Every structure is written in C-alpha cells, then in structure tokens.
Amino acid sequence: MTTNNDILDENYLSVPEVAKLRGVSRQRVYKWIEAGLECHHDRLGRCMVKRDDAAAWVPMDKSPGRPPIVTLGQIAKAKKMRRAGKTLSEIAAKMGISKQVVFYHVGKNGKP
Predict the structure, then answer these.
(1) Rounded to two decimals, what is the model's pTM?
(2) Per residue in 8-29, pLDDT tens?
C-alpha cells in the first residue's frame, strides 16, 4: 500500500465503489487488497483503488462458498452410479458438477 495525498480524481475508487462496480461485498474487496490489489491512501486515510486496477483485477482466491444446488433426483442418480462402482470423478464429469459436490452428497463410499 502506498500513500498519496492527491488522490481526489475520478481515476480512483473507494472500497465501497469497487464493491459496487464488481458486485461483491466490501469485505471481499479488502481480501483482494490483502491478496495484492494495490491500495493508495488519500489525505483522509481512506483506501482508494485505481479504477483500471479495480476493473481488471482477477482474484486468485477461489473460496468454495456454497455448493451448487442439485436435485434429489441427481443425488439418487449419483448414489446409484457410486454403488455401481463409478469413481467420484466419473460421476462429476457425467453429471456436470464438481467432485466436491458429489462427495458432499454421495460420500466416499456412497454414504454421506
């Protein structure tokens, strides 16, 4: 983080403005700053981010969040495939969902 007392033009955005621009929470923007998004401080000490940096930032943190919603029918189908000897990877590829979601709903041995 650098300090700059002349950050008052439209090329810089505050953390809430970055959050609104990117459609995320302010907390997420602060995590991006911790991860390397450059923050400059105006004369009041507020963290300001260059507009171009905020728009181009590609976060490397892929927090898992909630698993996507799957239907009971998909869960039953996945359990049946697992009992038939298919691997978690095979089930995930066939159903178009992640291995983590399959594991969450089906478990390692077909029992969550």
Answers:
(1) 0.47
(2) 567 889 999 988 888 888 998 8
Does 25 fall in a domain? yes
Residue with tokens 């978690």: 88
Number of domains in the chain: 2
85, part of any domain: yes
48 and 77 in a single domain? The answer is no
Instruction: Let me know if residue 64 belongs to a domain.
Output: no
